[in-house]
Amino acid sequence: MVWNMRFFGGRKSEASYQRAQAYYESMKTRVLKSAVGWELHRALGPMEKEVYDGITFYDMVATRAKVFLANLKAHHWTDFRVEKDKCAMYQFVHANGFPHCPIFKEWDNVQDFAVEGGKIRRENCMGSKNCFVKMCHITMGHLNSAKRIKEALPWSDYIEWAEHLWHKRPIDWDRTWGPYFDQLTSTLKPRVMIQDGFKGGRSLHDAPIELKVEVVWGVAYLAYITVGAHECDLESSIILRDGSVLNYQFKNFLAEDEDQCSKKLLVDRGFMDVVWHMAESFAAALAFDSIRVDIFVPINGDPRDAVVNEISLSSGAGYAWHWKFFSKLW
Q1: Which terminus of the chain is more solvent-facing, meaning fewer CB atoms within 10 Å of its CB: N or C?
Q2: In angstroms, rounded to a whole number, what is the distance separating the alpha carbons of residues 2 and 37?
Q3: Confidence of residue 15 (pLDDT cuts 50, 70, 90)
């Protein structure tokens, strides 16, 4: 569907496509140089035999999931948990020294969560809008696997919510990697945790901006602006390594617009220097060929207070014309 936009959008859409291709050419040597010296994680070695010229991004993710499943069956390797189990994810983040929102505690049964979680809520989360309860074995947002702690909501509601999701298993029925990841996630043990919120702004209740950074062979390629309260009108803009910030809308047939507001807000104030470095450092620690690192930045605070929120090895985010070229580098 994206490629039909070049036809219907005319010269403006074609120009946006050509710019994405030129950006790819400008980044290719840098990425390939990094790839040559990259020590790839053992779990991903078999992917080399599965990929082919012209493979799409989604099919690359499906291939990765297929390899993860084969590794589990042959070697009992559980490397997939670094994405599909939030508890395992944050354990990796913490063990490797990356800043993140603190985890108060994790539970492997609802009974202890009901008692101890209520106490943690009373002692740490009353008056704060930023504490969350998260199911570890479910990472799909549409299953409501994370719940903000609110003073007005009785603790019994959180217990019922956890009980409802305790034996729930995610099913990626609409994704090519579903048949593989569904088998993998079915092996996860149910767990729940309470996490403190982001405290990097000037006040307790400052909401951060989240940047989803795609890293390929150790090089941050682009960042996608998602949640956050700020003064810029445009949503879902893409930040490139050359400092440009571009916005693509389907209603405009993906003809790009310069997002000068987000550029002034994030690029010109030095936030991206921290974000690029943090994302690339995380990719190096994990030793994966491609990874999305989601980073909270304190728009009203110091860029150095940025933290890792979560990661994705099966990103469904769309990057307009850049998707095709990013996939070629992977």
Answers
A1: N
A2: 34
A3: confident
Could you give the CA distance from residue 278 to residue 293 in angstroms, rounded to a whole number?
9
Question: Quick one: which of 65, 80, 211 has its CA closest to 137?
Answer: 80
* pLDDT, tens digit, 9 for 90 and up, residues 251-273: 666 778 889 999 999 999 999 99
Q: Look at strands 146-148 and 209-216 and give their pairing.
A: unpaired
CA angle 128, 132, 136 (to 5 degrees): 165
Q: Which residue has the tokens 């590794």?
A: 71
pLDDT digits (tens, 9 = 90+) for 308-317: 999 999 887 7
Minimum mean pLDDT range among 1-10, 14-23, 71-80, 241-250: 1-10
Three-state SS letters, the chain: CHHHHHHHCHHHHHHHHHHHHHHHHHHHHHHHHHHHCCCCCHHHHHHHHCCCCCCCHHHHHHHHHHHHHHHHHHHCCCCCHHHHCHHHHHHHHHHCCCCECCEEEEECCHHHHHHHHHHHHHHHHCCCCCCEEEECCCCCHHHCCEEECCCCCCHHHHHHHHHHHCCCCCCCCCCCCHHHHHHHHCCCCCCEEEECCCCCCCCCCCCCEEEEEEEECCEEEEEEECCCCCCCCCCCCEEECCCCEEECCHHHCCCCEECHHHHHHHHCCCHHHHHHHHHHHHHHHHCCCEEEEEEEECCCCCHHHCEEEEEECCCCCCCCCHHHHHHHHC
Distances (CA, A) of 208 to 88, 153, 202, 273: 24, 24, 11, 17
292-314: b (≥16 Cβ within 10 Å) or e: bbbbbbbbebebebbbbbbbbbb
Closest residue by Cα to residue 61 from 320, 292, 321: 292
Angle between helices 178-185 and 57-75 (to 10 degrees): 40
